[in-house]
């Protein structure tokens, strides 16, 4: 009987260890998947910034805005690039066209909205609502 109890305990311990290892692997797999999604979102923000900068440069060519366009940076104002439960993120994008010489820039605001589910975004002149 003692031998049966020891064998049962060993089987139970082995099963618990296996269950724990599976849970740890699942958690590691999910973390890797989440990290990849966050990196993808970061790359998407760079794409948005490039698109906004191109639009601003086109607006300069058409005489709508004053140039030259120096840079474009976008920051989330609604939603998040880090919270993977957010399906959309709205950005205010600042497009610099003048270096003020004191560490600041002057320029224009654009807005952009990214739909993380579809992978598509829209953007235009003016601050987000």
What is the topology?
Blueprint: H1 2-61, E1 71-78, E2 88-99, E3 105-115, E4 120-125
Region (Disordered): 1-59
Biased composition (Basic and acidic residues): 21-59
Biased composition (Low complexity): 1-15
* Largest sheet data: 4 strands, antiparallel
Structural class: alpha+beta
As for the number of domains, it is: 1
Strand order of the largest sheet: 1-2-3-4
Strand content: 25-35%
Average pLDDT reading: 93
Measured as a percent range, the helix fraction is: 40-55%
Radius of gyration: 25 Å
Describe this structure in words.
The chain has one domain (2-125). The chain has one helix at 2-61; strands at residues 71-78, 88-99, 105-115, 120-125. By secondary structure, it is an alpha+beta fold. It has a 4-stranded antiparallel beta sheet, with helices on one face. It starts with a helix and ends with a strand. A hairpin with a 5-residue loop joins strand 2 and strand 3 (105-115). Helix content is 47%, strand content 29%. The chain is built from 1 helix and 4 strands. It is rod-shaped and about 90 Å long. Residues 1-15 have a biased composition (Low complexity). Residues 1-59 are annotated as: Disordered. Residues 21-59 have a biased composition (Basic and acidic residues).
């Amino acid at each position: 009987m003692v031998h049966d109890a020891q064998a049962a305990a060993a089987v139970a311990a082995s099963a618990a260890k296996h269950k724990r290892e599976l849970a740890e692997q699942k958690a590691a797999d999910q973390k890797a998947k989440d990290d990849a999604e966050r990196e993808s979102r970061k790359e998407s923000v760079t794409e948005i910034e490039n698109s906004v900068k191109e639009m601003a440069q086109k607006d300069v060519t058409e005489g709508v805005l004053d140039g030259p366009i120096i840079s474009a940076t976008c920051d989330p104002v609604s939603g998040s690039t880090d919270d993977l439960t957010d399906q959309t993120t709205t950005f205010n994008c600042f497009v610099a066209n003048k270096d003020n010489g004191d560490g600041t820039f002057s320029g224009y605001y654009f807005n952009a909205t990214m739909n993380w589910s579809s992978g598509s975004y829209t953007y235009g002149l003016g601050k987000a609502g």
